[in-house]
Amino acid sequence: MSRLRIYDDTRSDTPTEVLEDHAAIATALNAVGVRFEQWEADQPIAPGASQDEVIAAYRSDIDRLMRENGYQAVDVISLKPDHPDRAAFRQKFLNEHTHSEDEVRFFVAGAGQFTLHIDGKVYEVLCEKGDLIGVPDGTPHWFDMSESPYFVAIRLFTNVEGWVATFTGEDIAERFPRMSPHASASSVS
């Protein structure tokens, strides 16, 4: 189940608000400029699937998003708990950073956690299968996949170079909760 926990950015111990209703999550995030939508993720894709398999399964959705929003590039992150480079992948996204373009992700399997730092608040968004999130350019944020990653996300870029981050140098991400492993990750060897 998707979830939004909102914190004061000086207090990581207790969220000020917890939302689990998708419409309420979308409303709260839209109020701070973040796109959050529920899409159909009905193709039989599992974490560990290849980029080619995922893109082929969601070709029509990808083409529509690229056409409607001017995206120039697409790729896929597909990880499961036994991936040999999972720790290095996790570390790459764990520190607060920004991008010069919107960060758009469509989760077609599993789950991942975006945490956004906006106007003195921290928005921890647990994204699950079917969630599409669009983080506006320049928004400080970080991403966690837990120590046992289990997800497939399609990434869309207006920059043909793909994922390019500018790290803020702030240590705020170290003070807020990390993602717990997804329930399905324990059944994967």
What features would you describe in this structure?
The structure is a single chain. This protein has one domain: Sandwich (Jelly Rolls), CATH 2.60.120.10. Helix content is 21%, strand content 34%. The chain has five helices and eleven strands. The chain has helices spanning 22-30, 51-57, 59-69, 86-93, 172-175, and strands at residues 3-8, 17-19, 35-38, 73-79, 97-98, 103-118, 121-128, 131-135, 141-144, 150-157, 166-167. Strands 1, 2, 3, 4, 6, 7, 8, 9 and 10 form a nine-stranded antiparallel beta sheet that branches. Strands 5-11 form a two-stranded antiparallel ribbon. The two termini are 23 Å apart.
Domains (count): 1
How far from one another are the termini?
Answer: 23 Å
**CATH fold title:** Jelly Rolls
Provide the gyration radius in Å: 16 Å
Q: What best-fitting shape do the alpha-carbon axes yield?
A: globular
Q: Could you give the count of β-strands? A: 11
Average pLDDT level: 91
Structural class: alpha+beta
CATH H-level superfamily: Jelly Rolls
Number of contiguous helices: 5
CATH class: Mainly Beta
Which residues form runs of ≥5 with pLDDT under 50? none
**What is the beta-strand fraction?**
25-35%
**Main sheet?**
9 strands, antiparallel
**SSE string:** EEHEHHEHEEEEEEEH
Helix content class: 10-25%
Architecture in CATH? Answer: Sandwich
GO molecular function, one term: acireductone dioxygenase [iron(II)-requiring] activity
Pfam families: ARD (PF03079)
Family: Belongs to the acireductone dioxygenase (ARD) family.
Pathway: Amino-acid biosynthesis; L-methionine biosynthesis via salvage pathway; L-methionine from S-methyl-5-thio-alpha-D-ribose 1-phosphate: step 5/6
